[in-house]
Amino acid sequence: MNFLHTLTGSFAQPAAENPTVAMIEAAYRHHGMEWRYVNCEVPPERLADAVRGARAMGWAGFNCSLPHKVTVIEHLDGLAPSAQIIGAVNTVVLQGDLLVGENTDGQGFVEALRPVCTIEGQRVLLFGAGGAARAVAVELALAGAAHITVVNRGRLRGQELADLIAARTGATAEYLHWQPTMQIPTGTGIVVNATSIGLFPNVDDQLDIDWSTLRPGMVVADAIPNPPRTHLIRTAEAAGCTVLDGLGMLVNQGAVAIRLWSGVDVDRGVMRRELERVLL
Ligand code: NDP
């Protein structure tokens, strides 16, 4: 018998509403892995101690959520290339004796997207310029998207993200200020909502866009995981677009994290069903 499980987990505040532990442990159980995922409430002033504790106990890695995604970097030994460009870390991986920061939000998004469309050469319209949008934009650009148009309410963050993509990846990028009833430019292949519009409990909030400019053949993705069937997803589906909900991104970013920690490529269906069971 082995009574010593490999430890992983999450450091966040607040932590109680984060369902990640349920989907990750479902994957561990399904694959017969003797691994555990511990959901920890860690305030900012205790983050350094939490990381030291994880090192001391030999954790294989951990996730960082709000408010630690940027501040955790100073406690790590290195960053993966895309996490360095994004400037934020949501997954830390023990490599030998070193703790390396990764960002699986965008990688998970790209893995969720790959089965439904080719990313290479696409023109992307991205709503939002916060943490999720930065991760999605950088990974789409690194995956070969040709052009990313960033649309954001706040001009400063939007312009900064477009400049980052243009400077640090092979894609071209521009910032477009969010005008009322914004039209989706013709030639757009992928539309992504990475704002928090539509997130529970504000489930009736809608993007301010001209819905008639959503066309069949476009891929429309929403980062909002709860509820998964947002107004955007329902409207895009009715317009004949291919849709991708935020649960797909959430499941895939977790699956990428498990792969980085353990090398095991887990069954995403198991994780999605567990999330649906606990959330819906
Ligand atoms: P941030 O707070 O960093 O960014 C929020 C973004 O939403 C900003 O671009 C902000 O614009 C925009 N925004 C918020 N409210 C409005 C509004 N009323 N009108 C227009 N724009 C608005 O959050 P994150 O980037 O971390 O998260 C964004 C969403 O992505 C969240 O809902 C989160 O749940 C989801 N997410 C999903 C993941 C998944 O795996 N499915 C992973 C990570 C995040 P401005 O700059 O003008 O303030």
TrEMBL record:
Biological role: Involved in the biosynthesis of the chorismate, which leads to the biosynthesis of aromatic amino acids. Catalyzes the reversible NADPH linked reduction of 3-dehydroshikimate (DHSA) to yield shikimate (SA).
Listed SUPFAM superfamilies: Aminoacid dehydrogenase-like, N-terminal domain, NAD(P)-binding Rossmann-fold domains
UniProt catalytic activity: shikimate + NADP(+) = 3-dehydroshikimate + NADPH + H(+)
Residues noted as binding NADP(+) in the record, renumbered to the chain: G128, A129, G130, G131, A132, A223, G246
All residue ranges annotated as the SDH C-terminal domain in the record: 246-276
List of catalytic residues: K69
Key word S-adenosyl-L-methionine present: no
The EC number(s) this enzyme carries: 1.1.1.25
Subunit details: Homodimer.
Domain called Shikimate dehydrogenase substrate binding N-terminal: residue spans: 12-92
Superkingdom in the source lineage: Bacteria
Gene3D superfamilies tied to this protein: Leucine Dehydrogenase, chain A, domain 1, NAD(P)-binding Rossmann-like Domain
Organism: Hydrogenophaga pseudoflava
Chain residues that bind shikimate: S65, N90, D105, Q253
Record-given protein name: Shikimate dehydrogenase (NADP(+))
Pfam families assigned to the protein according to its UniProt record, in alphabetical order: SDH_C (PF18317), Shikimate_DH (PF01488), Shikimate_dh_N (PF08501)
Keywords: Amino-acid biosynthesis, Aromatic amino acid biosynthesis, NADP, Oxidoreductase
Coiled-coil residue spans: none
Family: Belongs to the shikimate dehydrogenase family.
